[in-house]
User: Fold this.
Amino acid sequence: MPLTLLECDVPIPEREKHTYIKKSGETIIPRCNAQTTPGDLTERGCTYAGCMGVVGGPVKDVIHLVHGPIGCAYYTWGGGRRQNLSDNTGFHRKYCFSTSMQEANIIFGGEKKLYNAILEAYERFPEVKGVFVYATCVIGLIGDDIDKVCKNASKEIGIPVIAFSCEGFRGVSQSLGHHIANDTIFEKIVGTKEPDYLTPYDINIIGDYNIQGDLWVINPLFEAMGLRIIGTFTGNASIDDIAMVHRAKLNVMHCQRSTPYICQLMEEKYNLPYMPVSLFGIEQTSKALRDVAAFFGLEEKAEKVIEEEVAKTLPEIEYYKEKLTGKRVFIYQGAPRAWHWIKLMEELGMEVIGAATTFGHSDDYEKIIERIGDGALVIDNPNSVELKEILIKYKPDLFISGLKEKFLSYKLGVPFVNGHSYERGPYAAYSGFVKFAKDMYTTINHPAWKLVEGRA
Amino acid sequence: MSQTKTKRSVTINPGMLCQPIGAMQAVLGVHAAIPLVHGSQGCAAYPMRMFNRHFAEPAEIALSSLGEDAAVFGGADNLVKGVHALTARRHPELIGVITTCLSETIGDDVDGILRKVDLPVSLVPMHTPSYVGSHVTGYDNAVKALVTHLAEQTGPNSKINVTVGLLDPGDIRELKSMLGMMRVKAIILTDITGAFDAPLILPRPSFPDGGTTVGEIRDTANSIGSIALSKHAGGAAVKYLEMKHKVPMIAGACPIGVENTDAFLDNVSELTGRPVPVELRQNRGRLIDAIIDVQFKVAQKKVAIFADPDVASGMARFVHELGMDPVIVATGTESKEFVKDVQAIASQTGHEIEIIPGCDLYELHEAIKRIGVDLLMGNTHGKVIAGDEKIAFARLGFPVYDRVGYQRIPIIGYNGGINLVDRIANAILDHADAA
Assistant:
């Protein structure tokens, strides 16, 4: 009985295929990357969210113009000071651009409005280096030729204008949006510029979105080893840097759900190899640095960096390990962090009693199941009803998920850390691990939990 | 008195959201009700996140999960499966089926599809294509759909109906307090205090306590009268109740500030025959006391107000009462009614007001640069304008998520007015200190 049906899923038996209890020796992967059941109280986002919100949006020096009714643009505006940080704060994420399609545009088409909108936006922000145009659901239905409009507009204003056909109804989750963004950026941007000079030690960091400044603790580690970073994809990225990434010697790939596509495309076209890494926790970060160092013959330098960083962080990690050992955690993330973090929790002596992803594919679940302990629950695309049942039944000491689940967790009396946009991050690499551990310790031991009426 | 509206194809920093989120808020104010969005996944996930951020509360939103097949063949199957699955699993008393640009463009006959569904739950179709109106009209449509589908005449009930619009839980608590002091029984459409200001007490109930019950919505046809606090968001419902069920309606100004609250309480009095009690007159006196106390801190300051139409026009009159100068009054929603309301305030008070309906924050920013302003009032997104122009900033409206607690602090009624006096004066003082 490896697959299991939660009580709340009795009326929706197909959910059983998505819900697995780990048992060693089996090779079962829960059903995943499938259409959400109608009527579900889903936590998933759409293809547009994956394309614009995750991969495209962090590019810091282009106009992100959302072609559709106003909501889709509004919802991806800003993100506060916490997400996708960039050093272009005077423009990036400060402005939100939309064609705000009205009924007449839906009837008669929105191509003219889009063309005018691109020109008007550029006229007001002539310092930008490009325009990204994102199609939302209704654009696919009315059949606007956004590629043609973008080509014409690009001719007119003399900078790249890139069309992303990321209508929300395509695909089953954010995941297809990542793929569309990868393909589009590869096809239309990568290889369009050349670096001033090359070194034998040029790399790219692919698949990190600089959540609360992750890249600002990751990049210095590689730079200290003597490597030069040509481009990041796409945290704090300039479109010009992305245009030159094909000249690196190695792609270091962090998010292995949203960016293997562009890594594979670069490998095929430019013979540029890629190396998947985990940059969370001491063990995995050290392994990543060693693996990359071995590629370049920089082992000695890597050992020096690792030694210094571990000396700085280990005492604090030991402190939190003592406090957190034995605590039971349920991790629900987009996809890769659910398995990146299983090892990290082990370093802190914590037990991962369950793992879930919003849009994981079978390779994500393979990695989760390989790493997670027997008896742990592995569930694909859980909805709020299932999450509630899991939190009540399994009573984890800690739930790590995103904003949409945060207040549900609080309301059920379960300590919570936001793993999507973090609490007091960044959480990556060595110094980030200490912050992550501190946040976990803080919520688990918060004095107010003891005051909650009815909480055992 | 002037009126501007820039004709641009690009919207930069929008002043409105789309219709579905307004409808979702209306449904979440009904007890044991769940909105089911007939659209793609972002149409549920994004509004959910917006509610989470503004209210610091969970929000339960279901989805019919339209994919590529539905875009080609229609979404009827998804919708029917969806309401069945949701009912079997959550046993809600009401499902508000909320359309989107996707389902409206596909052309699904949602009303027809739902008529054929036989389930022990009230199914209320709400037409909210994202390419029409704004979150404000979405809310308006949703509340109207609730009474259209549910209200039935069964015999007088001695209550009044009050539609609140897109106000916060704090405002609804203040509304209930005022009506309680007047010993007036009311049906509040819809009451989000249950869903969006819930206590942390375990075990958590299956549905949050509170909220307007389906029975109360049915009973709205029997009330002695209706008042819309926000005529743009709830006005359509009270109009419908008057036309269909002869429930007399009043849709005046949003009760922000002294005179607007006076008028609201007079209206309640007129409908119910209940006098305004001494406690409320004392609160009125406290508000005026607070206004007089801060006069030299705020008088003659030029204010730009940016909010949903009824809150913006309500605030315009209130800042006049504070001795301030409302130089810009803007809203993201297109509305002739809004323009008329603010024009009336301008002519009654003698202020020169730039009125901007259908405004985005780029246009607002340009107007602020042109006219010169001391204080901006608006949602979280106004912060960057205030920062760029180095002017004072007092938060107001939806969404506010860069500071905590605003959803709990009422702005309506005399007590809400006192909160606003403090907020405005302190914003000006903080700004002076920082300079």
User: Anything to note?
Assistant: The first strand of chain B starts at residue 2 and ends at 3.
